[in-house]
C-alpha cells in the first residue's frame, strides 16, 4: 500500500446472500466502483471512488447494497479533525485548490431553525384555507409608493414591467453546462406549468428552450457567455450576476471537459475550452457603472423587462443593496453563504459570506429606513429547504425566494456533492449522454410541480394559522416571528423578539 493512501470515506456493504451478480450496480455507477470478478465469480468494489450518491442502492433489484460512512478514524481532536488532516495530505500531494460542489456542509447556525412562526388564538381568528381564498400570487419589480391618477381619475399604470408569480418561489440560476439538458428542460417545463420562472445561469439559453422564454430569467454574468440580442429579448427578465453565495468575490469555472456539443454552441465558446468567468465584471467598478449596465439592458429590451441584480450575502450587504436599489435595478436577489454551486474552491465555499437570514433582515431594514424599500423587490436564496423557510423569509422581508438545491433534490439529486466531477449518476450535473438520459424531463417537471404545489398548500396553512390571507400582508411582518436560543444581538439584527416576549 502506498504511503499516500487515504482510507475511503464510505464503505460499500454488499449482502452476498442477496446479491445475484446481475451487474446492475456496475452499469449504474459512473464512478466505476463495482466490478464483476470473473475468477472469483462474485461482485467486488473499489470503495475509494464511491461518493455516496446511492444510485446503485436505489436500483439494486434485490436490495443487497448499502453505503455506510467509514468509522476508520484518525486520532483526531476538536482542533485537528480527520477532514482537516486529510485535506492537508491531499494538498501536499497535488499542490492544488480543493474543489467542492453544492452548499457548505459546515456546522454554522441555521437561523431558519431558530425562528418560530406565530398562530392566531381567540382574539385574531385564523383562516381556513380549504374554505376561504388565500392569495399566494406576488408581483416583483419597482412599485410606486402611492397611487397616481390621471385627469379622468383612472389609476396610472406606468410601472416598470413586473414579474408575476403564482407562488413566491423561483428556480435559481443553474447554467446549461453545469447541469444537463434534461435538468434544464425539467426546470423550464415546471416553471411554465407553475406560472413561475427559472434562470439560465451564466451559460446562455439553448435554442430548444426559447419557447419557454416567458418563464425564463436570462442571466448576464461577468464572462458574458451566450449573451446576444436574441437572448436578451427571449427572457421575461434579465439578471446581472454580481456574486454568488457559495463563492462571493470569485468568478465561475466550468471545466473544458463539460464544454461539449450544444454547451459550447450555447456558450459561444470553442469545445473543450475552460469557461472561466472573471471575478468582477470588467466594466463595473462602482454603482454608477452598474447603473450603466442596468440601463443598457433596459434600452436593449425597450424597457419591457425588469432587471434583477444578484449579489452574494457579504459583511456590508445592506450598504451594497442600498446602492444597487439606486442603480435602477427592479429586483435585488441576495444569495446566502449556504447556497449551492456546481464547482467552487472548498475554502471559499466554507468560509466566505454570511447567512441569508441575517443579510435579508439587515437589507430590508436599511431599505425601509432609507425610504426606498418599494423601489425594488427582494428575492433571497441560499438554502431554502421547505415551505416554513419560505414563510420565515417573507416575514423577514423577502418578496419571494430562489431555490436550486431543493429543486435538484426533487429531480433525484442525492446531495453527494460531487457535481464538479461531471459524473452525476442521476443525470443532473453531467453532460455525458448515457447519464443525461437517466433523467426524464416529463417526470422531472412533474416532481418539481408536485413539490411547489405541496409547499403552496403548506404556505397557505401557515398563513391561515396566522390569520393572514395574502403573501403581500405577510411580507416584512416580523411580529409573526419569534427567535429561540438566540442572543440579543442576533435578535436585534433579525428584528424579532425572543419566544415568550
Ligand atoms: S445490483 Fe445488487 S444484485 Fe445486482 S450485482 Fe449489484 S449488488 Fe448484486
Ligand atoms: S458512487 Fe454511487 S453508484 Fe457508485 S458505488 Fe457509490 S453510491 Fe453506488
Ligand atoms: S446533482 Fe448529481 S453530482 Fe451533484 S450533488 Fe446531486 S447527485 Fe451529486
From TrEMBL:
Annotated residues for binding of [4Fe-4S] cluster 1: 19, 22, 25, 60
Presence of keyword Cytoplasm: no
Keyword Transmembrane attributed: no
EC number of the protein: 1.4.1.13
Pfam families named among the record's database cross-references: Fer4 (PF00037), Glu_synthase (PF01645)
Gene Ontology terms describing biological process: glutamate biosynthetic process
Gene3D superfamilies associated with the record: 3.30.70.20, Aldolase class I
SUPFAM superfamilies (alphabetical): 4Fe-4S ferredoxins, FMN-linked oxidoreductases
InterPro entries: 4Fe4S_Fe-S-bd, 4Fe4S_Fe_S_CS, Aldolase_TIM, GltB, GltB_archl_type, Glu_synthdom
Residues that coordinate or bind [4Fe-4S] cluster 2: 29, 50, 53, 56
Annotated keywords: 4Fe-4S, Amino-acid biosynthesis, Glutamate biosynthesis, Iron, Iron-sulfur, Metal-binding, Oxidoreductase
4Fe-4S ferredoxin-type domain ranges (all copies): 10-39, 41-70
Gene Ontology molecular function: any one: metal ion binding
Reaction equation(s) it catalyzes: 2 L-glutamate + NADP(+) = L-glutamine + 2-oxoglutarate + NADPH + H(+)
Family the UniProt entry places it in: Belongs to the glutamate synthase family.
Protein name in UniProt: glutamate synthase (NADPH)
The organism of origin for this protein: Bullifex porci
Phylogenetic classification of the source organism: Bacteria, Pseudomonadati, Spirochaetota, Spirochaetia, Spirochaetales
Amino acid at each position: 500500500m502506498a504511503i499516500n493512501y487515504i482510507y475511503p470515506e464510505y464503505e460499500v456493504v454488499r449482502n452476498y446472500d442477496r446479491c445475484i451478480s446481475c451487474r446492475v450496480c456496475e452499469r449504474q455507477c459512473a464512478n466505476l466502483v463495482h466490478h464483476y470478478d470473473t475468477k472469483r465469480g462474485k461482485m467486488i468494489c473499489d470503495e475509494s471512488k464511491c461518493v455516496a450518491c446511492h444510485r446503485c442502492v436505489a436500483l439494486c433489484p434485490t436490495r443487497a447494497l448499502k453505503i455506510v460512512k467509514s468509522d476508520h478514524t484518525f486520532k483526531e481532536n476538536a482542533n485537528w479533525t480527520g477532514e482537516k488532516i486529510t485535506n492537508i495530505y491531499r494538498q501536499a500531494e497535488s499542490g492544488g485548490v480543493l474543489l467542492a460542489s453544492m452548499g457548505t456542509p459546515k456546522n454554522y447556525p441555521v437561523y431558519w431553525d431558530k425562528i418560530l412562526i406565530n398562530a392566531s388564538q381567540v382574539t385574531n381568528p385564523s383562516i381556513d384555507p380549504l374554505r376561504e381564498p388565500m392569495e399566494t400570487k406576488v408581483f416583483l419589480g419597482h412599485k410606486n409608493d402611492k397611487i397616481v391618477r390621471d385627469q379622468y381619475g383612472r389609476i396610472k399604470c406606468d410601472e416598470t414591467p413586473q414579474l408575476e408569480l403564482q407562488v413566491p418561489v423561483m428556480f435559481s440560476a443553474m447554467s446549461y453546462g453545469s447541469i444537463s439538458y434534461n435538468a434544464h428542460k425539467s426546470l423550464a417545463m415546471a416553471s411554465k406549468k407553475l406560472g413561475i420562472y427559472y434562470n439560465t445561469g451564466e451559460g446562455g439559453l439553448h435554442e430548444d428552450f426559447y419557447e419557454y422564454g416567458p418563464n425564463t430569467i436570462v442571466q448576464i454574468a461577468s464572462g458574458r457567455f451566450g449573451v446576444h440580442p436574441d437572448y436578451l429579448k427571449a427572457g421575461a427578465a434579465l439578471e446581472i450576476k454580481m456574486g454568488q453565495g457559495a463563492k462571493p468575490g470569485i468568478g465561475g469555472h466550468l471545466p473544458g471537459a463539460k464544454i461539449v456539443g450544444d454547451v459550447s454552441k450555447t456558450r459561444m465558446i470553442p469545445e473543450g475550452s475552460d469557461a472561466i468567468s472573471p471575478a468582477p465584471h470588467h466594466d463595473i467598478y462602482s454603482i454608477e457603472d452598474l447603473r450603466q449596465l442596468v440601463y443598457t439592458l433596459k434600452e436593449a429590451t425597450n424597457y419591457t423587462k425588469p432587471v434583477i441584480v444578484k449579489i452574494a450575502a457579504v459583511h456590508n450587504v445592506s450598504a451594497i443593496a442600498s446602492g444597487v436599489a439606486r442603480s435602477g435595478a427592479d429586483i435585488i436577489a441576495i444569495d446566502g453563504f449556504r447556497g449551492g454551486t456546481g464547482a467552487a474552491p472548498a475554502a471559499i465555499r466554507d468560509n466566505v459570506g454570511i447567512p441569508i437570514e441575517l443579510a435579508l433582515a439587515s437589507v430590508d431594514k436599511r431599505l425601509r429606513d432609507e425610504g426606498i424599500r418599494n423601489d425594488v423587490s427582494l428575492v433571497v436564496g441560499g438554502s431554502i429547504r421547505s415551505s416554513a423557510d419560505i414563510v420565515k423569509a417573507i416575514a423577514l422581508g423577502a418578496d419571494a425566494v430562489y431555490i436550486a438545491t431543493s429543486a435538484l433534490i426533487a429531480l433525484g439529486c442525492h446531495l453527494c456533492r460531487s457535481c464538479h466531477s461531471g459524473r452525476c449518476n442521476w443525470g443532473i450535473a453531467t453532460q455525458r449522454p448515457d447519464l443525461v438520459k437517466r433523467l426524464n424531463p416529463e417526470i422531472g417537471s412533474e416532481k418539481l410541480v408536485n413539490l411547489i404545489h405541496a409547499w403552496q398548500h403548506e404556505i397557505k396553512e401557515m398563513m391561515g394559522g396566522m390569520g393572514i390571507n395574502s403573501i403581500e400582508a405577510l411580507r416584512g411582518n416580523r411580529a409573526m416571528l419569534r427567535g429561540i436560543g438566540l442572543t440579543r444581538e442576533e435578535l436585534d439584527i433579525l428584528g424579532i423578539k425572543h419566544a415568550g416576549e
